[in-house]
Write a structure and sequence with these properties.
The structure holds 2 protein chains of 2 kinds. Chain A is of the alpha/beta class. Chain A has 12 helices and 10 strands. Chain B has 13 helices and 15 strands. Classes of the chains: A alpha/beta, B alpha/beta.
């Protein structure tokens, strides 16, 4: 196989014919996350016959449709639960889930927390654009305080959901947050997440100029993308400033999103533990029973 | 490793051939015999014993049991498991069945085989959790949004809990549609003698797998291996077919096609007609004393038991009464009712609800005979005398 060096070659290898144009608007971050994922898969050399993509409902959940692999486009919020079944039926399959902030942290929150707690073997890529984009810009559970949505016309008064913090608390094996504006760390991180046993979460902060940026006066697409650079900080830098920085520097961090790897554990995944259970029972059954000749 | 059905291992786990068994447990046995390798469920009275049985026995045969976070997740996992190549089942009762309705429709739309055991209890809402009812018979037919065909069996005995669970898997696999075992708290919590069928007496149907060339395969149209069959071949995930499965209206290739009327009509007609076209083959009824009858009880599930007793009392009192028991309730045995209505003067439909199956009975009786609902709710079965009194016209 020839080495792939350009995005065109990458797309040709991994994407389906006849699905263009995509449903995504100009300046949307979803295609970028797809591209990062494909680069990670390419670098890992995974067999696309054995890689299954699952998704729920929303813009992000349309991504599996573009990939030339098995894909299960499920109901709103439920992809993780569906994927639990896929993995149980065929543990040789690699499971990747594309989901959004509404799909995963909103309607699908319950499935998310329990899959993370069980350390179900799957990689969840949650694209967080702070908004319900497909339905036209309603308030998302991750929306920053004060942000405007069609259903929060006077500004959001609800605390935003920190999904990475939640996943860490539940003991997920791998938890990272990245931003679509930086390509290299995310690709490396997706690779780490994919290779991880058990549950891995990659949250991507991604712009939605149409439904979020416009209403929140983040300027044109270029300015909107720059907003992400100006409002994120690496976890390591954050910690340093919190330790050594001036009060002013610390104050400036308050509204910024930390990006990087939050958690990296090596616990066995659910299906490894379940397999051990099955083996344990089988050994017990094959033991000669007392009192029987 | 993927599950392989191993008859010896299953029978070792099940134990003796003749047992005194709980109805809920018999559903687990039926599932295991049918080749089910994935159970996902959530505790709910009076269906919890099904999950408990699966938790105990499934790991012993190398099958997977998982307790999900709710019933929405349970049915979602079943559908995922089916696409991963497994036969999958869950068990629930009314409140859980209500939660499952969205993904039940998803299973229909994506033509995914899976089996739902509904051990019915009284409703609406939380109702009487420990007591039986037949209040979800119409929900199973019409509860999800949009146009579907349902496959539903109603066991009257513990033996039938086992047999009908196998049958539900067979129907589900054959038609690529979810199938329901609509049992109830009475039969589910009943203990009776059962006989585990011998391996050679079992009929096990598996979905038709996709085997043709991957470039020529079209996942959502008539079978490409069986002639004149509206049921597509099944491209199990991981076998290289790269199938896209969506609950959106899709074209034959499986891709979203949501803005044109003909695409939707073609799809939904095919997935309903694959069942309705076979309606004449899909009849499972039991007839008792109908030959000379001028009155008939049309009944199903637990209620068939007091109805049969009422018939015996009626016969002793010179009523020419018989019983038509529906084993397969959906698809509805229209022709049987049409025929019966022309023969008898009166059809009485006892049910543990305020009248559900009486409606299609009345529809297909078409005015050819009187159709009377004999309802009972509140978590008690009909006493035979309560059904008998309808013979006396009271």
């Amino acid at each position: 196989m020839e080495q792939i060096t350009t995005a065109d070659e990458l797309n040709k290898k991994y994407l389906r014919d006849g699905m263009w144009p995509t449903i995504f608007c100009n300046g949307c971050g979803h295609g970028v996350v797809l591209e990062y994922t494909l680069w990670a898969l390419e670098e890992l050399g995974w067999d696309m016959d054995k890689t299954v993509f699952a998704s729920g409902i929303g813009c992000s959940s349309r991504l599996p449709g573009y990939i030339n692999a098995d894909g299960l486009h499920t109901t709103h919020g439920r992809a993780i639960a569906f994927a639990t079944g896929i993995k149980a039926a065929d543990p040789d399959l690699n499971i990747i889930i594309f989901t959004g902030d509404g799909d995963c942290a909103g309607i699908g929150g319950n499935h998310f927390i329990h899959a993370a707690r069980r350390n179900i073997d799957m990689t969840v890529i949650m694209i967080n654009n702070f908004i319900y984009g497909m339905t036209g810009g309603q308030l998302a559970p991750t929306a920053p305080l004060g942000s405007i949505a069609t259903t929060a016309p006077y500004g959001n008064i609800e605390n935003p959901f920190d999904i990475c913090n939640l996943a860490c608390a539940l003991g997920a094996n791998y938890v990272a947050r990245w931003c679509v504006t930086h390509p290299y760390q995310p690709i490396k991180s997706i690779k780490e997440g994919l290779q991880k046993k058990g549950f891995s979460l990659l949250e991507f902060l991604a712009p939605c100029p149409t439904a979020y940026g416009r209403r929140n006066k983040l300027g044109d697409i270029k300015k909107h993308w720059e907003w992400y650079d100006n409002n994120t900080i690496l976890i390591e830098d954050y910690k340093k400033i919190m330790q050594y920085g001036t009060e002013e520097e610390k104050k400036e961090l308050k509204h910024k999103f930390q990006i990087g790897v939050f958690q990296d554990l090596q616990k066995p995944g659910f299906f490894e533990l379940y397999g051990n259970l099955v083996n344990r029972l089988q050994i017990k059954e094959n033991e000669p029973k007392e009192g029987k000749k | 490793m993927k599950y392989q059905r191993d008859p010896k291992r299953i029978r070792d786990a099940l134990g003796k051939k003749v047992q005194f068994l709980l109805g809920d447990m018999a559903c687990v046995y039926g599932g295991m015999l049918a080749g089910c390798s994935f159970f996902a469920g959530y505790p709910i009275t009076p269906a919890s014993e099904v999950a408990e049985g699966a938790a105990r026995l499934f790991p012993r045969i190398g099958a997977t049991y998982i307790q999900m976070e709710d019933e929405i997740g349970s049915i979602a996992a079943l559908i995922g498991a089916a696409w991963g190549g497994a036969k999958s089942m869950t068990a629930t009762s009314g409140p859980g069945f209500s939660l499952m309705m969205e993904n039940y429709g998803y299973a229909v739309m994506t033509e995914t085989p899976c089996v739902i055991v509904n051990v019915q209890r009284t409703g609406p809402s939380t109702g009487q959790p420990t007591l039986g009812a037949q209040g979800d018979m119409m929900q199973c037919r019409w509860g999800t949004h949009g146009d579907i065909e349902a496959l539903a069996l109603a066991p009257s005995t513990v033996q039938e809990c086992l047999d009908f669970t196998i049958e539900a898997f067979n129907l589900s696999e054959k038609y690529r549609n979810p199938a329901c075992v609509m049992t109830d708290g009475e039969v589910g919590h009943l203990r009776e003698r059962i006989i585990i069928p011998e391996e050679q007496d079992l009929e096990i149907i598996d979905r038709v797998p996709a085997i043709i060339d991957k470039k020529k395969f079209i996942p959502f149209m008539n079978s490409q291996t069986i002639k004149n069959c509206k049921i597509p071949d099944f491209p199990t995930f991981g076998t290289g077919y790269h199938t896209y499965v969506t609950g959106l209206t899709h074209n034959e290739k499986g891709f979203p096609a949501t803005d044109k009327q003909p695409d939707h009509e073609r799809l939904v007609k095919r997935i309903t007609e694959k069942i309705t076209n076979d309606a004449s083959k899909l009849v499972m009824v039991e007839k008792l004393n109908l030959d000379d009858a001028d009155i008939a009880f049309v009944t199903y599930g637990a209620t068939a038991r007091p109805a049969e007793s009422a018939m015996e009392i009626g016969r002793k009192n010179r009523y020419k009464v018989g019983v038509l028991r529906l084993k397969l309730v959906w698809p509805f045995p229209e022709k049987e009712i049409v025929k019966l209505a022309k023969q008898v003067d009166k059809i009485i439909v006892p049910e543990m609800n305020l009248g559900q199956i009486v409606h299609p009975v009345r529809e297909y009786a078409g005015g050819n005979c009187e159709v009377i609902s004999a309802p009972k709710i509140g978590g008690e079965m009909h006493h035979p005398a309560e059904i008998y009194k309808y013979l006396e016209g009271k």
